[in-house]
Design a protein that fits this description.
The protein is an alpha+beta fold. Among the domains are: 79-127, no CATH class; 140-200, no CATH class. 26% of the residues lie in helices and 11% in strands. It contains 7 helices and 6 strands; from the N terminus they run ββββααβαβαααα. It has helices at 54-60, 73-82, 108-111, 120-127, 160-167, 173-183, 195-198; strands at residues 19-20, 26-27, 37-39, 42-44, 87-92, 112-117. The strands form 3 sheets. The protein has a two-stranded antiparallel ribbon with strand order 1-2. The chain has a two-stranded antiparallel sheet with strand order 3-4. It has a two-stranded antiparallel ribbon with strand order 5-6. It is flat.
């Protein structure tokens, strides 16, 4: 209740049928059939009823608010919670001392830990080896380059000699395909686009 009125705009007006308003929200059918009930000395009728599903209430034994949606924002809402990530835990560790004259130095950086919480259902899902994510269709980018002209990524502050040492002898996908053609007879029968389906 806000300022003596319901923040969810109850009681709702009576309607002979369900309609969808301009914003895409449903305005549910509420019949004025004269049926009432007394709760805490207040007379309630159909205009006070919150949308519900009796089957879900009986099955789960709790209140579940059920609303029909005609908005594309509902998809965004669902995906936001599906991909919201793991629950987080912030924990602190400290050491107590009984000696009054000892000066204790508190290292706040060492005492702060940003932890990840894995619930029982997620832990069992991972233990049983079920897929965490699935991409369909799976796409692998197969880059092309001329001999000795493959792209190299490095940071500005890195020593160029160290960068050359790291990439020297490292195979790109194209070079790996050519090496597989040389080493394996089966590899010669595969095109570049077929190669990732048989080799890792």
């Amino acid at each position: 209740m806000l300022n003596g009125r319901c923040s969810k705009f109850y009681p709702k007006p009576f309607r002979p049928r369900t309609v969808i308003d301009d914003a895409g929200f449903p305005r549910y059918k509420r019949l004025d059939n004269g049926r009432t009930i007394m709760k805490k000395n207040i007379t309630l009728d159909n205009s006070y009823i919150i949308p519900y599903n009796p089957s879900l209430l009986l099955k789960y034994g709790c209140h579940i608010n059920v609303e029909h949606t005609c908005q594309t924002s509902a998809i965004k809402y669902l995906f936001k919670y599906v991909h919201i990530g793991n629950d987080g835990v912030t924990a602190t560790f400290y050491q107590t001392t009984n000696e009054a004259d000892t000066i204790q130095v508190v290292d706040e950086i060492r005492n702060y830990y940003d932890c990840r919480y894995i619930s029982a259902c997620e832990a069992s899902w991972r233990i049983l080896g079920y897929e965490i994510q699935l991409k369909e269709p799976s796409v692998i980018r197969l880059p092309f380059h001329l001999p000795n002209e493959h792209p190299v990524v490095f940071r500005d502050h890195e020593n160029i000699v160290d960068v050359i040492d790291i990439i020297d002898g490292k195979l790109t996908k194209l070079l790996a395909w050519m090496l597989a053609n040389r080493l394996f007879e089966f590899g010669r029968s595969l095109t570049y686009s077929q190669f990732p389906t048989k080799f890792v």
